[in-house]
Write a structure and sequence with these properties.
Strand content: under 5%
Radius of gyration: 25 Å
Largest sheet: none
Structural class: mainly alpha
Helix content: 55-70%
Number of helices: 10
Distance between the termini: 51 Å
Order of helices and strands: HHHHHHHHHH
Length: 248
């Protein structure tokens, strides 16, 4: 034993020290991470508390800080909420930029595609059909939870571009989709009837803007329909909490 110790004492002591340092480092990182999450949580709560006083501008600025400095889950929530507030404040370009940042920085297709659709809602009245298709074609043709919402936006954009038959086909597909929300199916049925009845974009521009018809939520804030638009509030499934680890 004495000979073995004399021969291997340096590696043995080094290994023991490495193990101790590794455990201490992990514990230190865990403590630091918990402090970061706690700070992000307090910042996020403080930003939302400003909404109780209807101070949307200050809340948006505080959320911007959380999205820049916070941990990943809180940063994502903060950016979504800030984008919704920017829309309410009339800062459409800033909101569009935020949704595009989410798309570029988020690997989860559930959140990434949702950001694409929210951005498309902001541009659909002014963008060309080709630009809208580039954004949402893959979503509307896929099998994800945003498929129906993508189909509705694409149908509306097709009708605005004068592609009546394409729009009717998409609205019919929505109506035939079992998983489509009842309100979306109702809008699809109404749009089909209006289009078949001869409604044109010229007629639509003479109509007043439609008010928002459903209350907002964290990730699905209500937004007034733009002028000369027949799009109602988006029907979307409940997103998983990005602050939690994904479950099986």
């Amino acid at each position: 034993m004495a000979k073995l110790w004399a021969r291997y004492r340096i590696p043995a002591i080094g290994g023991a020290l490495a193990l101790i340092l590794a455990v201490a480092g992990y514990q230190g990182w865990t403590y630091w991470d918990a402090q970061q999450v706690s700070a992000s949580s307090r910042g996020f709560d403080a930003a939302l508390a400003l909404l109780d006083n209807d101070d949307k501008k200050a809340s948006a600025e505080r959320l911007a800080k959380v999205s820049a400095d916070g941990t990943s889950g809180y940063a994502l929530l903060a950016k979504f909420q800030e984008a919704a507030l920017r829309v309410e404040l009339g800062e459409q370009k800033t909101a569009l930029k935020l949704y595009e940042e989410i798309f570029r920085a988020t690997s989860d297709p559930l959140f990434r595609d949702y950001a694409v659709l929210r951005a498309s809602l902001l541009t659909i009245e002014t963008a060309s059909l080709d630009d809208t298709k580039k954004r949402i074609d893959s979503i509307a043709a896929g099998s994800g939870p945003w498929r129906v919402m993508g189909m509705e936006l694409l149908a509306y954009a097709s009708w605005r571009a004068g592609k009546k038959d394409d729009a009717l086909k998409l609205y019919a597909q929505i109506d035939a989709t079992p998983s489509a929300p009842a309100t979306t199916k109702r809008r699809a049925t109404e749009m089909k009837a209006l289009i078949e009845g001869g409604l044109t974009l010229t007629n639509l521009k003479k109509l007043p803007a439609a008010p928002a018809t459903q209350p907002g939520s964290m990730l699905f804030p209500a937004e007034p329909a733009p002028p000369s638009s027949l799009l109602g509030p988006a029907d979307a499934p409940i997103l998983p909490d990005p602050l939690q680890s994904p479950s099986p």
